[in-house]
Amino acid sequence: MQSLSLLVVLFAALLTPLLMAKFNIHSLPTAVAEIIVGIILGNSLLGWVTSNPVLEELRTLGVIVLIFLSGMEIDFSLFRPQKQAGSKIGVAPLAFLSYGSIAFMALAAAWVLDLLGLYHHIVFAAIIFATVALGVVIAALKEKELLSKPFGQTVLLLAALGEVLPLIALTVYQNLNGTSSRSVWLLLLIFVAAIFLLHRFRKPYQWFADIDKSTTQLDIRLAFFLIVTLVTVAESVGAENILGAFLAGMVMKLLKPREETEDKLTSIGYGFFIPIFFIMTGANMNLPAMFKDPASLALIPVLLIAFYAAKALLVPLLLMRFRKHNALAGMLLTSTTITLVIPALSIGKSLGIISSTQSAAFTLAAVITCIASPILFNTFYVAEKDDIKKTRVHIIGANLMTVPIVQQLTRGLYEVRLYTDDPVKFKTYNSEAPVTLLTDVTEPTLQQAGVFDADIIVLAHFDEDKNFAVAELALAAKVPRIIARFDAKNATDSRYDELAAQGVEVYNTFETNIAMLRSLIETPSTLKILQDTTAGIFEIVVNNRRFAGLEVKNLPYVNDITISQIFRGDHFIAPHGDTQLHLGDHIIFSGDKAQIGRMRAEFEKVN
User: Fold this and answer.
1) CA–CA distance, 167 with 156 (Å, rounded to integer)
2) Partners of 469 in the β-ladder
3) Which stretches are transmembrane (predicted)?
4) Cα distance between residue 499 and residue 472, in whole Å
5) Vertex 276: Cα angle to 270 and 281 (nearest 5)
6) Helix count (H) and strand count (E) of the chain?
7) Residue 462 in contact with residue 488, Cβ under 8 Å?
8) Contact status, residue 590 vs residue 536, Cβ threshold 8 Å
9) Could you give the CA distance from residue 143 to residue 342 in angstroms, rounded to a whole number?
10) 240 near 174, Cβ under 8 Å?
11) How far apart are the C-alpha atoms of 370 and 390, rounded to whole Å?
12) CB of 337 closer than 8 Å to CB of 370
């Protein structure tokens, strides 16, 4: 019977997404569909799936892997101070302020529940009401390609807080109210263990990528080692295993795994363990028993109202930065909750503070939010006008070569500034292009002028000593790309090679002219493309995850362009129709200049 129940669960896990695709069910999260399937197959209806030790072990592994993957979804860059758009409040302050309102309203909703005599454990109920389903929120934001925009970043950080803080609060609550005699201060040991593992494996992990092969899969072995280690530490200090799993996910994320590693872990989790967890959650519910209890039945609409009421203050807070429809959409999306609710209810049962029928009522209310909230979000969200972020190019050195470049680049997706410290050249070229006159090219002057606040710095000064000095300053300022001109390099001087080793792109006008003349002789059509007013050779970077994994033959615009090379990592790849794109690939192609703006906007959107 154990094998038969497992077979039914695995077949249901396989069939559920197929049926959703067959009937075009896109608004319902797969996790919710799996819970509904579990309800049909389990105790509530057909009774084909019954709980047994094997399924319960797999169910436990499912929730651990799910919480681990949730920890890997945390975008730590959102916690760093960010530049504000004008006078608008920043993403991080708005998200923290918003989550403070959720915590307050969750306590208020739990207190009202206590006043009504429906549930009396206020803190426990408040923790559940304050949770946000990070995975569902990320899926919804990805679908609309909002993760790179301020709205998406705010909602994402809010959802991350809605998973991290309730998890910590739940662990402390369980430790204080459980039968364990361990001190709550022992919980700090799990954080110490997480920090130790992070520092211990930060350098070796980069080495793993060089020696890894298909029969070892060192990145996956490390991931499960982290999970088991931190889960063991968590249980040893009296904490819940999901806290250890979540911290393991955060440690793994901070190790900066490759895209392939994240894909493999996601495949293992959502391909096997996690569907079992959700299906068994539905199978263990007993809806007939709950429907026989009028008090529990009446609890469902009240809990549903409480889940939404806990997020009600988000609307006026999000209005501080976003449009009215989008503020409402953000509130509705963050009302989605399921991931942490189910483990929390298991803890509540172990503490004896929630009955099976009450647990089923909480679960059903959470399932309803997962069904309704994404649909309502898609209904109310109004797309903002796309603010295409222009590439900021700062050029130092005004001359006959740089002025035409400024004139041409400003017509495209580039924000170009030209600087010179020569008053004569300033007077000569200021009428041809906007030029900023610098008193000198020392660090204080360059910092004050904002020269290093750029995506690309081009050092085109005739004085190579100045180019070298500014290149070193730009490296210290961590400018993403630095292009430097050195026409008369001294073969005995190694400083040019040192700059190149640090990523500075060194060019020589004489060598460039030779290359162009050779190109004109050997491949005259290439030079014609470069000089053509309608066609050109371009390079775009795949930053949009929507295109990662797509084959070249399935790309948009593929019939209008000719892809010659794909630069990946540190080598070139000759593309074929079935070549899959990876995140960070540089696509080199020829095509119509009129389309490059739209293509760059789509492919280079950070999503």
Assistant:
1) 17
2) none
3) 57-79, 91-112, 118-141, 153-172, 184-201, 222-248, 268-287, 299-322, 328-348, 360-383
4) 8
5) 120
6) 26, 10
7) no
8) yes
9) 25
10) yes
11) 37
12) yes
Q: Which of 541, 532, 547, 542 is nearest to 594 (CA)?
A: 532
DSSP state letter for 551: B
Copy the structure tokens of residue 110: 């739990």
Neighbours of 385 (CB within 10 A): 5
What one-letter code names the amino acid at 206? Q
Contact between residue 39 and residue 45 where contact means Cβ atoms under 8 Å apart = yes
Is 39 within 8 Å of 284 (Cβ atoms)? no
- Spatial contact of 479 and 454, defined as CB atoms under 8 Å apart: yes
DSSP letter, residue 56: H
What is the Cα–Cα distance from 457 to 407, expressed in whole angstroms?
A: 16
Instruction: Using CA atoms of 449, 450, 452, 454 in order, give the dihedral in degrees to the nearest 10.
Output: -130
Q: Which amino acid is at 276?
A: I
* Rg from Cα positions in the chain: 29
DSSP 495-549: HHHHHHHTT-EEE-HHHHHHHHHHHHHH-HHHHHHHH-SSEEEEEEE---TTTTT
For the CA atoms of 249, 253, 258, 261, the dihedral, rounded to the nearest 10 degrees, stands at 0
Helix (H) or strand (E) holding 236: helix 218-236
Q: Hey, what amino acid is at 164?
A: V
What is the rounded CA–CA span in Å between residue 11 and residue 185? 45
- Largest alpha-carbon pair distance within the chain? 91
Q: Is the pTM of this model over 0.90?
A: no
Give the position of tokens 């680049």.
Answer: 409
Neighbours of 110 (CB within 10 A): 24
Give CA angle at 55 (50, 59), nearest 5°.
120
Rounded to an integer, what is the distance from CA 198 to the centroid of its chain?
A: 20
Asked whether 37 and 12 are in contact (CB, 8 A), the reply is yes
Q: Which residue has the tokens 């499960």?
A: 224
Task: Decide if 487 contacts 459 (C-beta within 8 A).
Answer: no
- Amino acid code (one letter) for 284: N
Q: Is 566 helix (H, G, I), strand (E, B) or coil?
A: strand
Three-class SS of residue 477?
Answer: coil
Taking the C-alpha atoms of residue 104 and residue 106, their distance in angstroms, rounded to an integer, is 5
Which tokens go with 271? 């391909």
For residue 229, which amino acid is it? Answer: T
Chain-centroid distance, C-alpha 503 = 26
| 3-class secondary-structure state, position 202 | helix
Closest CA to 240 of 72, 64, 362: 64
For the residues of 20-54, what is the DSSP string, one character each?
A: HHHTT--SS-HHHHHHHHHHHHSTTTT------HH
Q: How many residues does the chain have?
A: 607
Q: Splitting the chain (607 residues) into consecutive groups of 10 residues, what average pLDDT does each group show?
A: 81 90 78 86 87 87 84 69 58 86 93 88 91 80 74 84 85 74 66 80 68 70 86 76 82 80 83 88 80 77 92 91 88 86 84 83 86 85 65 87 82 82 86 85 88 89 84 88 78 70 81 74 67 68 78 79 79 81 82 72 73
